[in-house]
Amino acid sequence: MTIFLCVISITGIISILWYYSNDLPDYKFLKNYKPPISSKLYSNDGQLLSEFSSEKRIFVPFNSIPSLVVNSFLSAEDKNFFKHPGVDAKGVLRAIINNISNIMTSKRLEGASTITQQVAKNFLLSNEVSIDRKLKEAILAFRIERALTKERILELYLNQIYLGEGSYGIASASLQYFDKPISELSYPEAALLAALPKAPSRYNPYKNPELAKFRRNLVIKNLFENNYLNEKQFKIFSEEKIQLKKRKSVYLENSNYYVEDIRKLIVDKYGFDKVYKQGFTINTPLNIYLQEQATLSLRSGLIEFDKKKGWRGPILNKKNNSNWKKNLNDYKLEESIGWKLSIVKKLNRFSAEIEITDGSKGIIEFSSIDWTKKNFNDLLEVGDIVYVEKIEDNKYNLRQLPKVNGAIVVMDPYTGRVLALSGGFSFKNSEFNRATQALRQPGSAFKPFVYALALENGYTPATLILDAPIVFDQGEDLKLWKPENYGKKFYGPSTLRTGVEKSRNLMTVRIAQNIGIKKIAKFAKALNIYENPEELLSLSLGSSETSLIKLTNAYCSFVNGGKLIVPKFIDRIQDSEGNTIFNSENRECDGCNQISYLSEKIPMIKNNFKQIISKETAYQMTSILEGTVKRGTAKGLRDLNLDLGGKTGTTNKNTDTWFIGFSSNYVIGVYVGYDDPSSLGRYETGARTAMPIFKKFVKNTVKKDSARPFKIPQGIRMLVVNSNTGERASYNDESIIIEAFKEKDLINNKIQYGNIEYISKENIYKFY
């Protein structure tokens, strides 16, 4: 009878196992499985800017996991892990006995899942609470143990588990809670992480520090009982306070526009799953200091412009202000802006009492609101929700979100690397990137390319061009086109240089008419300023639309000796195993493979960028744009006392304003305008709106010793000429300048310049 019952029991068990063994998920993929890993974006000096992930995770191989971390998790979850075959029979029996008591006393049931069973559940099954799932889990655990080593199973577990705060795996959690790698964890810190899998939300140390400490100490007690700690360590570690340090990406807010453009680029190239799950390492050219200064300069300029327009009113008004802090998330801005949301609680003639969202109190004084052009009585009402900026103690300045917007781009002219970019005042307020997405008319900022093409076609900087009224018939039933200079004046014959420095429209149109608008359109297309520009004379005045990044990139050709470059947002991308899958570096190193301490040969970096204009023309335009700073529309930059060049740009009715400027190592583009195109104001030109942003940036980032004089190519000769006539002049002439001529042009113009005496390159800057 006993034998019969045993046979029946064994048969029953086998039948159950056979039944549940059918249609089980395939577990063999776990052998080579790699969990989803965050892709990370780094600045040019290796600082973390952002992460792209569906699950915040850093994969760590088992041999890189410290023993104290392993010991902590085994003590918390499965102390017999290295002894059992996948299911811990003793643990199951203990859980059954304990749960009989728990059921009778209405306590929470105790589990007996091993780490292997948890791997089976997490990777292959659902979280359904049922006998069916537990049986399948047990069968899979046995099979997994036969297929994988214990170390591999533990590796999968420690990298897969959710540990709260959006962190998956021990490495990510270590950074999230302690801002340190797992190699630097102490036993109490490792024990805290090991305490979390049971209930990550319940034992979250940020939200429930007391419960977290209680659970951590249970793990420490288990460590002691399992002989991983001695009695002294047990007592010390149990009394130790939980010290958290949340990881912060300090500069992320200021680089949001830059980061988002890169995210779009790589998702388009590699697909969402690869970017968010395969752990790319993305190195960028972004310079954190330049990015910070670019963002601050842009915001400062937009605020100053907006102040000229006065106060437009509060964000909203909450008459019943007892619960005023609710539903304000849409109005929150980046912390780096430094503004707080507040409510007006009380008003008098000379101040307003306010309450900030953090509960603190303060006042806005009458002396700080002169820019609003209103009295306090007309300015605010009780219940108004407004932005304020702290200036000292409990005193605040009233602020408003600028209606105007803009962008700034900073590039390396020799490589195309984008060193900094901001596409607007606040990414939280508007994710639209005005540096790369906005298409606007560049106006006069396009003119230098018309003049560069003229210099490529026989003109010199001293060539005289008539500055006088001109009228064009645009065709039947169309009005006559009568271009005008800013200020509606004309000045007669003037040098080509003057046409750029003073931004003369009539001279520009005459040059365009002479060299042909088809050539200009083709040249602009070759420079990647426009894709398909209309062949109209108005194109020469910047009537077609382009983006700030494209125009700034084109200006790089003047600084780098006439080379056509492409904007680079990414330096290199590596996969999770360190293999380079993208590299933007396309220059060649001549001699790098022959480096030897015995050799005198110095390796040379050679680029293969296309020569879009001659080196001589590039320098002539650089020199002319330097003149724009010294004598022309950008003379507001002279007090910086730096070697700078640049060009202002203003469109019809002052709708779009620009300034593209450069030093010997940076090209900086700035754009300012309303998102809904309308006039900025009658006198708001590029020199008044965009150039101050450029100036503030340069003042904080470009030093005299780094802004070197621009390199003069071999084919250029320098002459002293009269700036008004372009003719040879003596040093006594009040209107003299040093002009850059192509050697071949001087040979062809001997009659005009006579017996030429060149100024040596060494003495050019002494002349000034």
Your description of this structure?
With 768 residues, this protein is an alpha+beta fold. The protein has 5 domains: 2-239, Biosynthetic peptidoglycan transglycosylase-like (Penicillin binding protein transpeptidase fold, Orthogonal Bundle), CATH 1.10.3810.10; 310-402, OB fold (Dihydrolipoamide Acetyltransferase, E2P), CATH 2.40.50.140; 407-565 and 610-701, 3-Layer(aba) Sandwich (Beta-lactamase); 573-606, no CATH class; 716-767, no CATH class. It is built from 25 helices and 26 strands. The strands form 8 sheets. Strands 2-1-5-17-18 form a 5-stranded mixed sheet. A hairpin with a 4-residue loop joins strand 8 and strand 9 (361-365). Helix 4 (115-124) crosses helix 5, helix 8 crosses helix 9 (209-225) and helix 9 (209-225) packs antiparallel against helix 10. The longest helix is centred in the middle third of the chain and has 21 residues, at 288-308. The protein starts with a helix and ends with a helix.
